[in-house]
Amino acid sequence: MAPSRRTILRSTTGIGLTTTGLSVSALASDDDHASEPNESHTGGDPEASWRCDDVHASLELFDGRAIAAGRVTTPTPCHEPVLADVESGDDSLSVTIDSERADGRGCPDVISCADYEEPFALPDSGGYTGLSVVHASVGDDVPVLEATVSSRETDCDPRYERTEDERTTVEIDGNAVRFAGRIVAPTPCHEVVFRAVDYDGDDVTVDIGLASTLEDGQLCPQAITCFAYRGVVRLHEGASIDDATIAHADAE
C-alpha cells in the first residue's frame, strides 16, 4: 500500500451505518456477560468506574470496506455508540467509537454497556499491518485493541509449507497475544497483513492474509515465495484472554 494519510469521517463513508447500541436492560438477556438492568459499575472495583463488564472489539476487513464491532462503555443507558473517526495511513487503520445521547428525555446517571456494529468504506483495497480500535465514549480515549504484524521473505520448500509446516506459534501474555508463523505467497511481491482481528471478551482470533506490494504498472517474478511473520495483539488493561487462534485467510 502506498504510504498515505487520510481521515474518513462518519458522514462521508458512503455506507449506511447500522449501530446496534443497546441499553443495559436490553443487554441483560443477551449473554452471560451482560450487566443487570440499571446496575452501576462505580462501586467496588475502582477500575469499573470507566468501563462496563466485557468490553471488547473486532475489525474485519474486506475489499474496500470494513466492519468494526464490539461492546463499549456509555455514560448512561440512553447513549448509543457512534463511529466517531476512521484514520488510514502508512499501512495502519485506526477506528474510534464514541457515544451520543439518543434523546432528550430524563435518564439514569449510570455507566452502561452498548453493542455496536459499524460498517465503513476504506480508501483503497490494500492491506494493513497495524490496526487499532479506540473507545472514547466515557472520559479519556481507551485503546481496547491494538494489533501489529511484520513479515519478511524466508527460505522454505513451499510444497512442505503447505502440507506440514504452515503453522503458527501463539503465546498469551497477560492482556496480549504474541504470534509468529510462515505463510506461502504466489510471488515475492507480497506482504503479510490482517484480514480480521477479533476479541469477543474471552478469545482472540486473528486472520492473516496477503497483500500485493506492487504499484500500478510494476511487474513481479512469478515464483511461489514463503514469508515469515510475527506480530502482537494487545488489549485494554485488565482484559482476560482464555484462548487465541491464528488462521491463514488466503495462503497459496
What's the helix and strand layout?
Layout: E1 5-8, H1 24-27, E2 56-61, E3 65-74, E4 79-89, E5 92-101, E6 112-121, E7 130-135, E8 142-154, H2 158-165, E9 168-173, E10 176-185, E11 190-199, E12 203-212, E13 225-235, E14 243-248
Overview of this protein structure:
The chain has 252 residues and is mainly β. The protein has one domain. It has 2 helices and 14 strands; from the N terminus they run βαβββββββαββββββ. It has an 8-stranded mixed beta sheet with strand order 1-4-5-7-8-13-10-9. A 6-stranded mixed beta sheet has the order 6-3-2-11-12-14, with no helix packed on it. The N terminus is likely disordered.
Mean pLDDT value: 79
Give start-end ranges of low-pLDDT stretches: 1-50
Strand order of the largest sheet: 1-4-5-7-8-13-10-9
Distance between the termini: 20 Å
Q: Give, in order, the helices and strands.
A: EHEEEEEEEHEEEEEE
| Large-scale geometry | elongated
**Strand-pairing-aware structural class:** mainly beta
Region (Disordered): 26-50
Biased composition (Basic and acidic residues): 30-50
Question: What would the keywords be for this entry?
Answer:
252 residues; mainly beta; eight-stranded mixed β-sheet; six-stranded mixed β-sheet; 5% helix; disordered N terminus
